[in-house]
Amino acid sequence: MKILVLTSYTKTQKSKHDNPLGREDLSPPERLDRRIRELSGYSARAGEMFTGPSHREVRKGLTQVRKHEEYGETTLDLYFPSNFYRVDRREALVNENDRIVPFDVEMLPDRAGVYYGETAPLERVEALMERYDLVFSLLEKYDVLELKCMFERHREVPLVLLAPPSWRISIPESLPNTHLVCTGAKVLVGKLPGANCYNLRGAVFRKLCEVACREGFHVFEKVRQNPQLIRDIVLEQR
Description:
32% of the residues lie in helices and 13% in strands.
């Protein structure tokens, strides 16, 4: 089984710089190219660049799975729904192994969904998803809002959106392969070891990986068949 994990750029970054890439550097293209070259010495792999609470949990989960003896037939890939800030300046969506430069690009006042990193066009994200058997969305709210149509279209690949109830997201019942799994603090904090209000989605993913490594990767198939089992699996209430 090929599994895709989608997560977001965040402000907390590994590589620090007194003058990171800013919104004023994004155009014209010549200025952006020059600034990326200037910052390339401070670049990091995207999967390691972001050091916030949820990202740390995601990395723990990925590391566990990739060290497991069953890894190979089942694989996990981490991507970001963006092609911005790449050292190589390619147009492809950013994989965890692609290098990006440090940036501090704040929200546009007239586009609430564009924050920290510019979200790639919906079609590119969907084209990536079609290459997988199961997709987990651990996206932050600003990316979910920008990609809202992605969660409202029919697709063959099961897409599991982890999101708190406070986001007020609803999935049409006519979309059997798009699943909203609520990761709210009332359900998880105090019950899921290591979970707090700042890392909930990452903690759920990390625990799911832990259970799969202990019981076998058939756990991922169970989730693919019925994503609503995730909460019971991570709370070990099966």
